[in-house]
Amino acid sequence: MGKTVGVVAVDPSSPFTGGAFLGDRIRMQELSTDTDVFIRSMATRNSPGGLARATKDAVHVLDASGKEIIVVETAGAGQSEVEIIKVAHTVLVVSAPGLGDEIQAIKAGMMEIGDIFVVNKADRENADKAVIDIQAMLETNGKSQMWKPPIIKTIAIRGDGVGQLLEKIWEHKNFLGTSGASRFREHVEVELLRMLEQKVARLMLDDLRRKGELDKVVEKILAREIDPYSAADKIIARKLGKIEHD
């Protein structure tokens, strides 16, 4: 389609060593000489939600560099890996037949966040059953939706179904262009709140450390003179100028 593409591939980190394999660039090595494609792997560093803490920043950098399409591959769909909804405009949920992914999708809330569902390895047995199962789950979603998530069968190693998938992605992009303002606004709002939380927390912690108050509060919590929730409330109240007497 003549578009420039950025890829951010997120891999899970070991809870013991913190390391990650980051093998996505190896699997996409044939793209390494394509000047219109840039691939960046990153580890979650055990950040929850299936993304790394810096994923959103990497997306911003790729966007600023002029990449027209940015693909974010999450670390996987577990119990709570749905943070991608706060980053991507179009969310694809990819599963394969016969692996129990359909049941996992229910647990993880994938049915609520998916804009397009993909059954890959569609040459496998039970591919049609996987499509029927996903369709049945989507129909049990009581929320009224202007966009009806399609289910596309693909065979990635042969490229089967990929053209149809691209058509649906573009169709969803056009749909968002007319009725996706609320989603874009939500993305901006979530990012602003995240930055405020990080910066306010950092400022307060630096102030507590500088005044030697952090160790005193920790000691009080260890001595069970106060609980962490009450301690946090008192610290915030003081910082806001509401003086409370012990």
Q: What's the CATH H-level homologous superfamily of the largest domain?
A: P-loop containing nucleotide triphosphate hydrolases
**SSE arrangement, N to C:** EHEHEEHHEHEHHHH
Q: What does the average pLDDT come to?
A: 82
Q: Helix share of residues?
A: 40-55%
- Physical arrangement of strands within the biggest beta sheet: 2-1-3
Number of strands: 6
Report the CATH C-level class of the largest domain: Alpha Beta
Question: What would you note in describing this structure?
Answer:
- The protein is of the alpha/beta class and 246 residues long.
- The protein has two domains: 5-180, Rossmann fold; 187-239, no CATH class.
- It is built from nine helices and six strands, in the order E-H-E-H-E-E-H-H-E-H-E-H-H-H-H.
- It has helices at residues 24-27, 55-64, 101-108, 110-113, 127-139, 162-179, 181-210, 213-222, 228-239; strands at residues 5-11, 37-43, 69-73, 92-95, 116-119, 151-153.
- The strands form two sheets. The chain has a three-stranded parallel sheet with strand order 2-1-3, covered by helices on one side. It has a three-stranded parallel sheet with strand order 4-5-6, sandwiched between helices.
- Helix 1 (24-27) links the parallel strand 1 and strand 2 (37-43).
- The longest helix has 30 residues, at 181-210.
- The relative contact order is 0.08.
